[in-house]
Specification:
Length: 543
Amino acid sequence: MTGRRDKRHAARPFLIVLLAAVIALMTAFAGCGGDSAPAVQTSYGKVEGQADSRGTMAFKGIPYAKPPVKDLRFKPPQPPQPWSGTYQAIMFGPVAPQTEEDVASTGGQKQSEDCLYLNVWTRGTTGKRRPVMVWIHGGGFTNGSGSEDWYNGATFAERGDVVVVTVNYRLGALGFLYLDRRGGAAYAGSGNLGMLDQVAALEWVRDNIASFGGDPGNVTVFGESAGGMSVCTLMGMPAAKGLFRRAIAESGAVSMVRGADYASRITDRFMARAGVSDVSGLLSLSTDKIIEAQGDLLSNEAASGTPLGPTIDGSVLTEPPLHAIANGSAAGVDFMSGTNMDEVRFWLMQVPQLAIAPLQSAMAFMPELQQAVGGNAQAIAASYGSRRPGATDGDVTMAITTDVMFRVPAIRVAEAQSALNARTYMYLFTWPSPVHDGILRSCHALELPFVWNVLHSSRSVELLGADPPQKLADAMQDSWLAFARTGDPNSENDAGAPKWTAYDGSGRSTMILNVDPAMQNDPNGQDRALWDGIPFDSVSPSP
């Protein structure tokens, strides 16, 4: 008897450990990080999220459109199917299909054509109505997601008591393959499905965000890189009119939108690589086959502009977005935009030859650069070099390419919007990263962990080093929050900062974002002036 009793008693710790492990696994599977958030009624049914230890509620993976699969592949988004009961919004939805390498960069998240989900963070679902910030992720229109670890909406919600929404949208061929000439009226808008997805998400915000404590009349759409390009495209897109009050474009304007003829040729090349000859053939392909053909297309068409992205198709985009903005399509929208000093140096990690490439060499691989430079490469390189003593050929090339691909297009949008008397602000981010012996300087995407105030995530440390300036992150996030709240980026939290004055085409006031910020009129103005008269009208060249 004694022996049996001892065995039973000895088994109890094991059972307790096993039970604890099961509970832990169930908790992890549920995405549990805190208590249940109150159930919220949306237009399509109730959703229940979770609250973290600080009381911020997260509602993850809410469907804002029907799954764009089967007969809905290559077609505009449709409203989601209503549900009964309570939808458990505790796990992120799948990301849009992309290559394995791209999914790895987003944390290895599950991918699926059923990807039209959004996420909401809020400090309260009742009482006052809070400003709303809707994030459009970047990734060259072929990769990325709204659930990447940098884009944790709790950081904005906790610091500024705003409601944050992050969005997945269709990417690559599934989001931007132009089939209007192949499939007729049934596939009108197919070259802009990713943009139409963003509009559908903004419509969902308009109709539902009040239930999450947000103000549908005070929505700021913001994004970086392709997300910044999306923001500016939305400003010139008739279907998006009235869906947001303010816009922030980081390192992205509208210089890479495609013309319909070019987009049609890309469709022909894609279909040839996929081994099909009509839309029916495309519909029969597996997701994996589409991504395989897409990867082949991108690797072989890198020198032909932007193979997959928004298209001036005559229906969704009736004219180049820059022209539409200049004609008042976003009249009354407060606008903030900016770039990083050394955008193109980001690609040194993939193309180290950039460090020594003369301008003429880079032109052979970059049609936007070739179109802008034309036959003036030698004179332009000499001009930039004269203001950069000791610069290598690669330094000069990267400075020119940064201006052509990012800074000058951003300036053109700001010029167009400010000319309509809309409140417009510009920044230039100049803090240099110390990693990789400092070669990246103020490269593309470097501002993101500062804006989102996530300086010490493992991904951020790889880009920023171990000791980035928290002061700069706090100041930048406060400016983004102030702009979302009032349309003015001057923050009450930093009374000692220089006043951020509005941008216009005469003074060109620009905030230099660094540890010690400063206002400057027309930074690198002699470089900028070289491009006067060169069109940056959003249409990629058509080879």
